[in-house]
Design goal:
Blueprint: H1 2-30, H2 68-97, E1 99-103, H3 107-112, E2 118-122, H4 127-145, E3 149-155, E4 167-169, H5 182-190, E5 207-214, E6 221-235, E7 241-250, E8 253-263, E9 282-285, E10 303-307, E11 345-349
Antiparallel strand pairs: 1-2, 3-5, 4-6, 5-6, 6-7, 7-8, 9-10, 10-11
């Protein structure tokens, strides 16, 4: 009996102490909080609620609030993003509005198979034309990767539809593996197919044709899956400047192109080693024992340097401060002025 009574007294004392401690904690939490008083020593460590002070904004479930400095920084970042977006949109809109109507006379029929000689073209720099040029570059890479041979032929005049064939007949007794230079291809294949090649030339040519050749399965012909043509037209009429175009053909059908107009620019298109010159279109580095000695750099792996006009640049010619090379023995004698002229530069193997 005494033991049970002692247990009851101990429980009563413990309950009384718990109630007293609970009252102190409730009093500490509900008591007004001031910086001078600080947090009551009997509190749970949570700052008391002061009904007279405004509660900061909080997300649901958040354990902390945004400060005024954080809100200001966030607003400043948002304003900067909006400003940059407006400037970018303005730049794109401005370049899209810079267009010219250029009159190409009869070459428009040759280029685009159209009777309309008045062509609408974007002025450089043009982001739209640059996107088209990048797409055409990817097509060229794909065509080259699947080709058996690539031939770059400089042209003095516009190409003719007769030279945009999908197959070129091989003359009797001609092994295509012996055609190791562009000149061999022009004289042996094009001449023998009764099409004159006087439009082609190795010196002072303003235009370029790239023939993609492949195995045809027929010993009497060579397959031509694609032809790329680069042409420049110097205009002196009501819209003076340089019109540049690059096109891809499958036979007589044009499948892709890009063009750009360099307004009011007078550029030497066929003058090597000149200050204000965009020349050449391509350079062929030949095997040992073929062609000029300065171009015998390829040993047994001949290749081409090829340049396309760059629509992202405002000027056709290079603004790079290069050192003029006067030695005719240097392989850079003719093409060093192309340094910095375009980002559309290719190294193409003659036999991929």
């Amino acid at each position: 009996m005494a033991k049970n009574l002692q247990t009851t007294n101990d429980s009563s004392v413990a309950f009384s102490l718990w109630k007293q401690a609970t009252r102190q904690e409730i009093h500490a939490i509900a008591a007004p909080f001031t910086p001078e008083r600080g947090i009551n020593s009997g509190s749970t460590g949570v700052p008391p609620v002061n009904e007279s002070r405004s509660t900061p904004f909080r997300f649901l479930g958040a354990t902390s609030a945004f400060t005024f400095v954080e809100i200001v920084v966030a607003l400043a970042i948002g304003a900067a993003v909006i400003m940059v977006s407006i400037m970018a949109f303005g730049a794109i809109s401005d370049t899209s509005r810079r267009q010219s109507d250029v009159r190409l006379s009869s070459v428009a029929v040759n280029f685009y198979n159209t009777q309309n000689t008045l062509i609408a073209v974007s002025e450089a720099p043009s982001y739209a034309a640059t996107a088209m040029a990048e797409s055409l570059r990817e097509q060229l890479r794909g065509d080259v990767s699947g080709a058996s041979a690539v031939v770059c032929l400089p042209r003095n005049l516009a190409n003719t539809p007769a030279l945009r064939a999908t197959n070129i007949a091989l003359p009797p007794g001609i092994d295509p593996r012996t055609l190791v230079t562009p000149q061999d291809f022009a004289t042996q294949l094009i001449d023998k197919t009764q099409v004159v090649h006087t439009i082609f030339g190795t010196n002072s040519a303003t235009n370029l044709s790239i023939y993609i050749l492949n195995y045809s399965g027929d010993s009497a012909s060579v397959n031509v899956p694609a032809i790329y043509e680069t042409d420049f037209v110097k205009l002196t009429n009501e819209t003076p400047g340089i019109y540049a175009t690059v096109r891809r053909y499958q036979g007589a059908k044009m499948t892709a192109y890009y063009h750009v107009f360099y307004s009011a620019q007078d550029v030497a298109l066929a003058t090597p080693n000149a200050t204000n010159s965009y020349y050449p279109r391509s350079v062929f580095f030949q095997r040992d024992g073929y062609g000029p000695a300065r171009y015998q750099e390829a040993e047994n792996r001949p290749f081409y340097f090829v340049w396309w006009p760059d629509p992202s640049r405002s000027k056709l010619v290079s603004s790079y401060a290069y050192t003029n090379i006067t030695s005719t023995n240097s392989p850079r004698y003719e093409d060093h002025s192309m340094a910095g002229a375009t980002s559309l530069f290719f190294v193409i193997p003659a036999f991929p």
